[in-house]
């Protein structure tokens, strides 16, 4: 069974600053995907970024980037130039390639961006 | 990308009653999923809704409590049966859009906020 751990319940960051969210996971699988989802107060789940485990290059998506350390089973998210609209709950999620759509989520990290 | 709608968006129900939540997708999708998000918690997968066959339930969830229908490739329902206050949660429909995406991507509906009194 896979587990996803997010050890930071809440993070606060000022506008334009950078914040890094941590995520670790445990699996015996070799082929899998990792995701960061954002859930603003509207509760709509929005995909922020995804990483295929077989890719060594870290994924980036505009101001969002990940640091994927496969050996350490670590998958952190960096939000650069934080904006007020980034205020949301951020969930790390894991999915094996033979279980499409079956996401295992971490507990979430509440990010608050302050002016 | 797939656009998903859910009905109702929220409801307040009495214990012992049942509520059926609808999930409609604007395109045909192979796989649909139902998640539960209890207050202040993360998302937990309830089941996979398969078109033309019975739903596949995750550990801790049973068909009698959460019957699911999937009559076609764009629609699914989740029923929360014989509700108790512990069923108060947000229920989210999710689809894996393998038809239109260059790579499979997971989309979520806006959720149904259920409160059981």
Rg of chain A: 14 Å
Tell how many strands the DSSP assignment of chain A holds: 12
Q: Give the percentage of residues in beta strands of chain B.
A: over 45%
Q: How are helices and strands ordered from N to C of chain B? A: EEEEEEEEEEE
Secondary-structure element sequence of chain A? Answer: EEEEEEEEEEEE
Shape of chain B: globular
Helix content of chain B: under 10%
The assigned structural class of chain B equals mainly beta
User: Per the principal axes of the C-alpha atoms, what is the gross shape of chain A?
Assistant: globular
Provide the helix percentage of chain A.
under 10%
Strand element count of chain B: 11
Gap from first CA to last CA of chain B: 37 Å
Number of helices of chain B: 0
Question: Mean pLDDT of chain B, rounded to whole units?
Answer: 91
Rg of chain B: 14 Å
What can you see in these coordinates?
The complex is a heterodimer of chains A (115) and B (117). Chain A is mainly beta. Chain A has no helices and twelve strands. In chain A, the strands form three sheets. In chain A, strands 2, 5, 6, 10, 11 and 12 form a six-stranded mixed β-sheet that branches. With 117 residues, chain B is mainly beta. Chain B is built from no helices and eleven strands. Chain B has strands at 4-7, 10-13, 19-25, 31-37, 43-49, 56-57, 68-72, 75-80, 89-97, 105-108, 112-116. In chain B, the strands form two sheets. In chain B, strands 2, 4, 5, 6, 9, 10 and 11 form a seven-stranded mixed β-sheet that branches. A four-stranded antiparallel β-sheet of chain B has the order 1-3-8-7, with no helix packed on it. The radius of gyration of chain B is 14 Å and the shape is globular. The A-B interface holds A 35, 37, 42-45, 47, 50, 91, 95, 100-108 and B 31, 33, 35, 41-45, 48, 58, 90, 92, 94-96, 98, 104-108, 110-111, 113.
Summarize the structure.
The complex is a heterodimer of chains A (115) and B (117). Chain A has 115 residues and is mostly beta strands. Chain A has no helices and twelve strands.
């Amino acid at each position: 069974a896979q587990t996803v751990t997010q050890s930071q319940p809440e993070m606060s960051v000022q506008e334009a600053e950078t914040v890094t969210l941590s995520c670790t996971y445990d699996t015996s699988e070799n082929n899998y995907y990792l995701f960061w989802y954002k859930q603003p107060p509207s509760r709509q789940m929005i995909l922020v970024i995804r990483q295929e485990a077989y890719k060594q290059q870290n994924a980036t998506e505009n101001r969002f980037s990940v640091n994927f350390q496969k050996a350490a089973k670590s998958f952190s998210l960096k939000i650069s130039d934080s904006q007020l609209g980034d205020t949301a709950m951020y969930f790390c999620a894991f999915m094996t390639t033979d279980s499409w759509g079956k996401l295992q989520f971490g507990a979430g990290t509440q990010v608050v961006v302050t002016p | 990308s797939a656009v998903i709608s859910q009905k109702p968006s929220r409801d307040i129900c009495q214990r012992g009653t049942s509520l059926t939540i609808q999930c409609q997708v604007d395109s045909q999708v192979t796989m649909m999923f139902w998640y539960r998000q209890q207050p202040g918690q993360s998302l937990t997968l309830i089941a996979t809704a398969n078109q033309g066959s019975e739903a596949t339930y995750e550990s801790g969830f049973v068909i009698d409590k959460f019957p699911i229908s999937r009559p076609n490739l764009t629609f699914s329902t989740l029923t929360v049966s014989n509700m108790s206050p512990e069923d108060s949660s947000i229920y989210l429909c999710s689809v894996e859009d393998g038809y239109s995406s260059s790579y499979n991507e997971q989309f979520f509906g806006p959720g149904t906020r259920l409160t059981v009194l």
